[in-house]
Design a protein that fits this description.
505 residues, FAD/NAD(P)-binding domain, five-stranded parallel sheet, 13 helices, binds flavin-adenine dinucleotide, oxidoreductase, flavin adenine dinucleotide binding, GMC_OxRdtase, FAD
Length: 505
């Protein structure tokens, strides 16, 4: 393979597809979009319930694990990351939230306040047409009874609200950044799958191309854009010699630019949940529901409804963990399925599940390379609960979740809490529950923070210390947004396309 492209974009994920498409739309030059994983041409990707079969399978998931988490009793968490065209946006639940307006204002970076990012969201939404899920389970619909003043509109992180979420699904099918922006392939854009990038190549301090894991070198006339996500992009950057000097030197990597913060500031939304079980409540495995499961594939094919049209998470809400008259500080995801607990994937019976996650966690971890060899997984310390206030908020959030779940008008579908169960009441017992079962929401961000001063990436998304190299993905978020991170990652891809086209004009 050879390249005469103006730009090489590494990673065809949520942000990378949009950055690439924007560069083409703005006539900034030709683009070679390289993706390590396979295409997304599969019914398992398109069918919302299909994520259940993709997660944990190396074909479409990088299957990373965190380091043992000190405040989770030494447990290692799954760090699921999509490995295919569409990236994590092809394996996710498609919940669509821009975030809170002041998430972006609080970044306090030129070009990133709400007034600047809103048009990018609007432009993306015009293509992907996210909307309130059709055909949600009645127990999910019942969540709207909590805050009836909002009717049946999807909840918002701006105020306390609950109900069926909006999703980037159209007619029961996933509509990812890849679907919306690079299909059909715009002229000037070449997508190549199955090509894993090892590192960036430089002429002096200027990025001139990339080296693939198989040793192939590819040139880019105008520059390289890293869109390999919060785990992939800092790993590639460090293998390219940009990162903390001592760490790189210890691995025998020639240091091109000492950037101490590369890999730092890793964070995610910490989460823990409650399981509810009762006959006739949510989806589950019972004799009465067996005909429904047997019919599910046909129902999906014919009507795009039913279990297989469910992205598992169907709704939830936002509330203040301590019930204060303040902005929501926790989000809840509601899954109208009986999920297993105590290590079991499935449990017999009908039920539903609701979690709570901290909207603005204060804990920070770090990502480090373990080897200069590209196939070696990095060390991913999510730093969960390094700041004890996150644990306090989650404990308060679980207590409030219990109260709210009791108030939902589920009618005859109401199910009592089955796990951890009503005996787990004290703060200490809830802390133990979180320690033993808590996880994160698969929203890792921040490993290539953009900012002023020593931040690895500038607010124009250029990598500090070198030329012709940009980052466009969730890794640049200085602080995670208050809700799910797919739409904000896409927005970053969109802004990247704007900035790079302007800067290379
Ligand atoms: C299971 C799961 C559920 C989620 N649910 C939701 C949800 O419902 N709503 C929501 O808003 N967010 C959700 N998220 C999070 C959201 O999908 C991500 O925040 C978002 O997709 C991140 O976009 P990105 O562009 O930063 O990275 P990605 O979309 O992950 O893209 C990175 C791409 O780079 C590729 N890549 C990596 N390394 C290399 C390399 N060396 N060479 C070439 N290519 C490479 C990857 O294969 C991938 O395609 C979920 C995530 C997961 C994993």
């Amino acid at each position: 393979m050879t390249s005469r492209a103006d730009f090489i974009v590494v990673g065809a994920g949520s942000a990378g597809c949009i950055a690439a498409a924007e560069l083409i739309r703005r006539e900034a030059g030709s683009v070679l979009l390289l993706e390590a994983g396979p295409t997304d041409n599969s019914p398992v990707v398109k069918m919302p319930f299909g994520l259940v079969w993709m997660m944990g399978k190396r074909h479409r998931d990088w299957c990373y694990k965190s380091t043992p988490q000190t405040h989770l009793g030494g447990r290692q968490l799954n760090v699921t990351r999509g490995r295919m065209v569409g990236g994590s946006g092809s394996i996710n639940s498609m919940v669509w939230f821009r975030g809170r307006k002041d998430d972006f204002d609080n970044w306090q970076l030129p070009g990133w306040s709400w007034a600047y990012v809103e048009p990018a969201f609007e432009s993306i939404e015009a293509r992907l047409t996210p909307n309130r899920m059709q055909g949600a389970h009645p127990v999910t619909e019942a969540l709207h009874s909590l805050f009836p003043e909002h009717g049946t509109t999807p909840p918002s992180p701006e105020y306390e609200s609950a109900g069926v979420f909006a999703f980037n699904m159209v007619n029961g099918r996933r509509r990812s950044a890849a679907d919306g922006f690079i299909k059909p392939n715009p002229p000037g854009l070449t997508l190549v799958t199955g090509q894993e990038v090892d590192r960036v190549l430089f002429d002096g301090d200027t990025a001139r191309g990339i080296r693939l894991v198989d040793g192939t070198e590819l040139n880019a006339n105008k520059g390289v854009i890293l869109s390999a996500g919060s785990i992939g992009s800092p790993s590639i950057l460090m293998r390219s010699g940009v990162g903390p000097r001592a760490d790189l030197a210890a691995l025998g990597i020639e240091v091109r630019h000492n950037s101490e913060e590369v890999g730092k500031n890793l964070h995610d939304h910490p989460a823990a949940g409650l399981h509810f079980a009762g006959p006739g409540s949510g989806y589950g495995i019972t004799p009465a529901q067996m005909p429904g499961w047997a019919a599910a594939p046909f129902q999906y094919l014919m009507t795009r409804r039913g279990r297989f049209a469910s992205p598992t998470v169907e709704g939830g809400g936002f509330f203040n963990a301590r019930g204060l008259d303040e902005a929501p500080d926790v989000q809840s995801h509601f899954i109208p399925f009986m999920l297993g607990w105590e290590g079991k994937r499935y449990v017999y019976g009908s039920g539903y599940f609701a979690d709570v996650c901290v909207c603005r966690p204060k804990s920070r971890g770090a990502l480090r390379l373990t080897s200069r060899v590209p196939k070696a997984a990095p060390e991913i310390d999510l730093g969960v609960f390094n700041d004890s206030s996150d644990m306090d908020t989650l404990v308060a959030g679980l207590k409030r979740l219990r109260i709210l779940m009791d108030q939902v008008d589920f009618g005859t579908r109401h199910a009592p809490e089955a796990f951890p169960g009503p005996t787990v009441q004290s703060d200490e017992a809830l802390r133990d529950h979180i320690r033993d079962r808590g996880a994160t929401a698969y929203h890792p961000v921040g490993t290539l923070r953009m900012g002023e001063g020593d931040a690895p990436v500038t607010p124009r998304l250029t990598v500090r210390g070198v030329q012709g190299l940009w980052v466009a993905d969730a890794s640049v978020m200085p602080a995670v947004t208050s809700a799910n991170t797919n739409a904000p990652s896409m927005m970053i891809g969109h802004r990247a396309g704007e900035f790079i086209a302007e800067d290379c004009a």
